[in-house]
What we know:
By secondary structure, the chain is an all-alpha fold. It has helices at about 1-10, 15-40, 40-60, 70-90, 95-100, 110-115, 120-130, 135-145, 145-165. It contains nine helices and no strands. It is globular and about 55 Å long. Mean pLDDT is about 85; it is low at about 90-105.
Amino acid sequence: MKDFKNYVSLAKKGDTEAFAKLYSIVYKEMYHTALYNLRNHHDAYDVVSETVIDAFSTIGKLKNEDAFKSWIMKILFSKIKRKQKEYYQDTSELNEDILYNFEFDFDSTELKEAIENLDDESRGILSLSVLGGYKSEEIAKIYGIKASSVRCRLSRIKKELRLSLIV
């Protein structure tokens, strides 16, 4: 996508309109990924906002314009992980809203429960693959692991989900 690369190049030079255009291209995917992992609308908006602020202030350091999308998603996952740690730091402040207020576009209580039972990293890898359409190499960059490990994890996650839905 030549225009995409051009927007990144302009944004690196301080063009706020170009950065706004980039944001308009990726914001829905970022929000859905954050919501899928955090299961709370307010927190999802917060981490996306924090990600955009960080990305805007550091885009000049981005070396490869083609890597913009995986770069901003890596920032997003860093924010998501930080927010998830906050959830677990003080369990007395956790409430049913944070743990269970996650909306699906379809009505499948069993699938919802199976996904909720996944650990945070598995849920993140699954969301990037299934919802975001990321390839294992891109997910590997985001998580700092090997692409083969991502493929293996995805296979295990899907198997685990299938087994939990059959039983």
